Amino acid sequence: MTINSALQQFTAHYAGRWSDAVTSESVYPLHSSSPSQTQLSSEQDTVNVLTSWSPTLHRSAAGNHAKVLHHGRATENVIVLIHGLTDSPFYMQAIAEDFATAGFNVVLPLLPAHGLQRPGRAFRQLQYSDWCTEVDAMCNIAAGLGHRISMGGLSTGGALCVHKAIRSPGSVTGGLFLYSAALDIGTAEQLLLQTEAGRIIARLSDQTIWLEKTVKDQLTMILDDQKAGEGDEHYGIGENPYKYSVLFYEGASQLAEVIQDINQYYATGKAATSIVKFSDLKLPLFIVHSTTDQSAKFRGVKRLIDNHLGSNAILLALRGIPHASVVLNASIVANADHEEYAPANPHYLTMSAATQAFIRQYLYP
Asked: Are 348 and 94 within 8 A, CB to CB?
């Protein structure tokens, strides 16, 4: 596959997706921009941007659409960077620029049920296999953009990277880059989210959503499903233009299924050979995680790093950094008192420098 055919495949993939993803909205034709010059260039090379977007996307489509950063040719390394649950490719933008600067072509997918103006129905219909299918498609496209395929992801995106690497050995030929990876969300939470009653409890007990707001938004979602709707007030759309204002419990339950499938792989699929969990992942491994993360437990990535048998692994353990802020080099939502405030990672430059050093050591032999 040539790079041009890979880019065409990328655009065609998203052109065919919106009518299925947004069943409650009118279907708009998908548009693809012509590759435009950006400021992500080194002295020797220029990085182009190919984007795929639709008017059905959540506002600020410039950050919510799927995107490829490419050098106009197949590169030695390519990486697929997957955003987290309820956010968008915008959250991975700074990380993507770091990899582009390092000479990578970069694929930024948009997970099913994400980036939409009205995501309620899409989440209710969601299965975690939809995410896995999306990851498979993006890895296939990445194969036409670079010779060595790496994967990276934030939170749910990180869990999907690990899932892909263990369920499809040999598909990731570069490294794994995990940011606040959701490999462990808590035993009780995991069990709850795998039952219908537990999902309802999780929805109602979410401390970031007042009950009266939940009831109002549930009604709004039902009404939105019945008509096209007008205006910007849609269920799940808040002040942060790149992330939903609620954590859809349907999405959280599918994350729980991803984690369970990873656990099941080692409990049954690897039982015959008694493989210690994660010890078969010998890829270069770069992890950034806050020890105080309450959304994705630190013990999940600690187990991964402890059981990784190679010397080609690094864990940057931060403290006091909000879950999704690990990947941000600039704050989202300026008001620090607002419930959707997403501050920048104050250690971002240190993390970025460590990433570059890791890439030079392990991915450019």
From this structure: yes
Under a CB-based contact definition with an 8 Å cutoff, are residues 174 and 150 in contact? yes
* CB contact at 8 A, 82 and 159: no
Q: Please state the pTM of the whole predicted model.
A: 0.82
Q: Which two tokens stand for residue 345?
A: 């990672």
Dihedrals phi, psi of 177, to nearest 5 degrees:
-125, 110
Query: pLDDT confidence of 191, banded at 50, 70, 90?
Result: low
Average pLDDT over residues 144-169: 96
Question: How far is it, in rounded angstroms, from Cα 37 to Cα 176?
Answer: 28
Exposed/middle/buried for residue 275 (C-beta within 10 Å: 0-12, 13-18, 19+): middle
CB 131 within 8 A of CB 38: no
Summarize pLDDT for 328-352 with one digit per residue, the tens: 999 988 777 777 788 999 999 999 9
Locate all alpha helices (DSSP H) within 104-176, ordered by sequence.
120-124, 128-142, 156-167
CA distances to 22, 45, 236, 238 from 226, in Å: 13, 50, 17, 21
The Cα angle at residue 326 between residues 178 and 40, in degrees rounded to 5: 85
Average pLDDT on 38-58 reads: 57
Question: Measured between alpha carbons, how far is 45 from 249 in angstroms, rounded to an integer?
Answer: 44
Give the Cα-Cα-Cα angle 127, 208, 315 (nearest 5 degrees).
70
Following DSSP, what letter does each residue of 289-357 receive, concatenated? EETT-SSS-HHHHHHHHHH--SS-EEEEEESS--GGGGG-SS-BSS-TTSTT-B---TTHHHHHHHHHH
Q: Which residues pair with 154 in a beta bridge?
A: 179
Which of 139, 115, 106, 134 is CA-nearest to residue 13?
Answer: 134
List 285's β-bridge partners, or say none.
176, 313
Q: Which residue has the higher pLDDT, 4 or 210?
A: 4
- Kindly report, residue by residue over 204-261, the tens digit of the pLDDT: 444 344 344 445 555 555 455 444 443 333 456 677 888 888 888 888 889 989 998 9
